[in-house]
Q: What sequence folds into this?
């Protein structure tokens, strides 16, 4: 058996947002690895081994997946959303670089609907003009880099998608991010809090940045800060196509 | 019959990247509107009216779609990629704002795999760290705004996804964008040219920004400029998870 490794995105949560390409890979996999809540979304069947693991185990998981593929297994690593956006694809390539003996393994990256696209769709079209995506976790980058990027993103008048805004281990960063954006003159901008988007627990809140409170976000929240021209029409929020 | 309007993303090209949610909407639509090459990707069937239109007709197309939905039709507007990223969703909300009588129409935005995610997947994981997306078309924004955003994106050390880099009507902007990024010290960064990604005409080129030539891009190209830490492993390009 010739092994392979697919790094797949399951989309934001709803099964109708899993691409047929990803479903097909899962249907012929022998092994599925990933953070436990994502592995739990994969349909079980005879002959499929599930390897759920903990959140901070990215490099170990990538190594395990490469080892299984090298041994001839058909392996899928699953991420929520898109595997290339703050998810497992980069970790796999890091692991691959550290282990040249595996560089002949057949690898595919299977894209998915990342959280900011699903959140934007529920809210309207806040990413209809130029935008950026910033991971607020400082586990792998110094906090001053995040602050600098927030300030430059505000100056560029990008809409800003904020991933991983807040967790039990990082309770304060998002509060500071809101302060920075308020200081940068973004107080009147519209902010979207998209909680658990496309799941049964989905909740979308929109308000001005000035009114936003840190407690409105947790790890299941994707935050989108509109640009200076972002506006409402009825229940919708959108970025006009003309430059602000 | 109660009309509705779905604004749907068909993904980058390959049929296996169309979400089941979008396929389901198309399966029960009475009318499909969109730029002609995108409408041509919709499976034809009895009872489905196709309304292809020209590229620059976004607001007219949005008006037409709202009028059909108001008359009780089940309408899908199709975009390539994701409808919220430099595509039809913002145009529909602009049209809706201009026509309050239609604000009761049931509207849904159905997300899709936008070109930068598919391009990134083919190349590796160049969007694995913070990034931005800039539409290089100056049809709806002044060119100086684009220049300012490119400079700030370079200063923030974002990976930069460039949509619509070059067309027959805009032959010079992308050359200027490369100059700006070279002047900003990005000459050593890895650039990915992803042509017609996931189609039979797909072609992926990676080289340094300094070596990049304007003619390498056209309207079917998505360009990703890596951040300063983006690197190669074998045929892959990825952004390490640690901050550059």
A:
């Amino acid at each position: 058996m010739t092994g392979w490794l697919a790094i797949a995105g399951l989309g934001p949560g709803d099964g109708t947002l899993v691409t047929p390409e990803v479903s097909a890979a899962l249907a012929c996999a022998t092994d599925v690895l990933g953070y436990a809540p994502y592995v739990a979304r994969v349909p079980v069947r005879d002959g499929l081994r599930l390897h759920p693991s903990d959140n901070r185990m990215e490099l170990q998981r990538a190594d395990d997946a490469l080892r299984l593929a090298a041994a001839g297994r058909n392996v899928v690593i699953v991420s929520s959303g898109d595997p290339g956006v703050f998810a497992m694809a980069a970790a796999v390539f890091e692991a691959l670089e550290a282990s040249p003996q595996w560089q002949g393994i057949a690898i595919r990256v299977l894209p998915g609907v990342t959280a900011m696209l699903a959140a934007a769709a529920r809210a309207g079209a806040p990413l209809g003009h130029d935008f950026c995506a910033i991971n607020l976790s400082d586990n792998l980058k110094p906090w001053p880099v995040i602050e600098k990027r927030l300030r430059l993103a505000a100056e560029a008048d990008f809409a800003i998608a904020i991933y991983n805004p807040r967790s039990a281990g990082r309770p304060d960063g998002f509060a500071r991010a809101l302060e920075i954006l308020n200081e940068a003159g973004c107080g009147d901008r519209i902010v979207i809090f998209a909680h658990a988007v496309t799941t049964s627990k989905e909740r979308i809140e929109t308000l001005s940045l000035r009114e936003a409170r840190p407690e409105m976000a947790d790890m299941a929240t994707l935050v989108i800060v509109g640009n200076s021209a972002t506006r409402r029409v009825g229940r919708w929020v959108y970025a006009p196509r003309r430059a602000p």
Summary: Chain A has a mean pLDDT of 96. Helices of chain A lie at 20-27, 36-39, 58-70, 88-98, 115-123, 143-156, 173-183. The two ends of chain A are 56 Å apart (CA to CA). Residues 121 and 127 of chain A are 9 Å apart (CA to CA).
